[in-house]
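Lecture notes, part 5. Sequence design as translation. It can be helpful to think of inverse folding as translation between two languages: the language of shapes and the language of residues. The source text, in structure tokens, appears below.
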């Protein structure tokens, strides 16, 4: 039997609720298929640890994670800790430390769900957003001077390297090639940002020559929000910078029905370090502890994790079970118009897995 070592980092807010739900589902799946087993270690890293010990994770935390085959992450962020501390102290530290430079965000309208845009149906919206995850606007470069004075200045420098842009562009073109429509849209703002994003445009054209079977085009990010809203069907795979893709993928998730269902893979495509899988939603303290968090985004992320681990049969089973759950109003969680609690959604999912066995 294949054994995969998983590091689970439930984190803050609803993170532990949705991660436990996903681990229950994965455990059910592995018993059922008998083809693989997950060895899970849980790490209590996050804002509570920060308040206790002054750091979200231990100094050698990133290195500890290198021993695992994959990481399942919940959410990080708490009302009483500044957001930039929690983000940089845990999530970004892991993504950058393990060079998970490709962030993949599939978005589609699952059975039974609908877009808030009445004209948009499941056949219109099936996207894969590829986000540059290691540099760009979130490179953490900049500084502040003359703090608190009227002439205070803060700089936030975006870094785009040829190597960084080439590698994300290759991932994007390869992902586009692997999908039926073989279509890629490269998003920039190269009319206003005349250095880094002109480099993006140039490198896109260069890498495109390696993928003659992929049809590609370019969009400015502002026009892209309009196209996603008014002409979603014309899009398939989308690649954008760290900041732009962060914003576009929230829009995408909302257009597909709810941020509660949207998954993310932070990939180290060369597999020299583990990749990390997480729902795109945050810690959502307004519903924490009420047992109503939608675990489907974490189920879907767990399915992406299975695919990455080579368990494609289990991935397909889990995706089919997710679709059974969303298709039936009685099994849906509250944010999708149903009444099921996190635990009930998980039970429905396990039942759907049993029926598929
Ligand atoms: P962050 O600061 O990390 O973005 P957040 O606490 O602002 O986190 P979001 O993920 O941005 O939370 O979500 C915004 C709101 O959407 C939440 O406050 C919550 O009401 C709702 N929401 C998010 N995720 C879920 C979920 N899994 N199930 C149900 N509702 C959710
Ligand atoms: Mg938020």
């Amino acid at each position: 039997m294949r054994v995969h070592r998983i590091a689970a980092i439930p984190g803050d807010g609803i993170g532990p609720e949705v991660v436990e739900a996903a681990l229950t589902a994965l455990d059910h799946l592995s018993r059922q298929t008998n083809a693989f087993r997950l060895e899970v270690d849980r790490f209590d890293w996050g804002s509570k640890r920060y308040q206790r010990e002054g750091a979200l994770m231990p100094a050698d935390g990133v290195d500890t994670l290198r021993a695992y085959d994959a990481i399942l992450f919940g959410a990080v962020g708490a009302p009483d800790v500044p957001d930039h501390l929690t983000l940089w102290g845990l999530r970004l530290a892991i993504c950058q430390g393990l060079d998970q430079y490709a962030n993949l965000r599939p978005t589609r309208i699952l059975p039974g769900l609908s877009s808030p845009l009445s004209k948009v149906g499941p056949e219109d919206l099936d996207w894969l957003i590829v986000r540059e995850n290691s540099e760009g606007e979130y490179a953490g470069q900049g500084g502040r001077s003359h703090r608190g004075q009227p002439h205070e200045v803060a700089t936030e420098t975006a870094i785009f390297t040829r190597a960084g842009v080439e590698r994300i562009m290759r991932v994007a073109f390869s992902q586009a090639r692997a999908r039926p429509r073989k279509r890629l849209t490269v998003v920039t703002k190269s009319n206003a940002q005349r250095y880094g994003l002109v480099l993006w445009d140039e490198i896109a054209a260069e890498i495109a020559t390696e993928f003659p079977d992929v049809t590609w085009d370019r969009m400015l990010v502002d026009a892209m929000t309009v196209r996603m809203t008014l002409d979603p069907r014309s899009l398939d795979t989308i690649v954008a910078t760290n900041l732009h893709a962060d914003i576009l993928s929230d829009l995408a998730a909302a257009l597909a029905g709810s941020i509660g269902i949207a998954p993310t893979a932070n990939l180290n495509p060369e597999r020299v370090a583990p990749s990390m899988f997480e729902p795109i939603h945050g810690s959502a303290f307004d519903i924490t502890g009420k047992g109503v968090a939608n675990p489907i985004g974490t189920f879907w992320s767990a399915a992406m994790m299975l695919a990455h681990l080579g368990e494609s049969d289990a991935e397909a089973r889990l995706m089919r079970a997710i679709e059974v759950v969303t298709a039936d109003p009685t099994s849906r969680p509250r944010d999708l118009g149903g009444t099921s609690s996190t635990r009930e959604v998980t039970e429905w999912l396990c039942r759907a897995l049993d029926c598929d066995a």
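The translated text above is only one of many valid answers, since several sequences can fold into similar shapes. Residues 282 surround magnesium ion (ligand 2) (CB under 6 Å).
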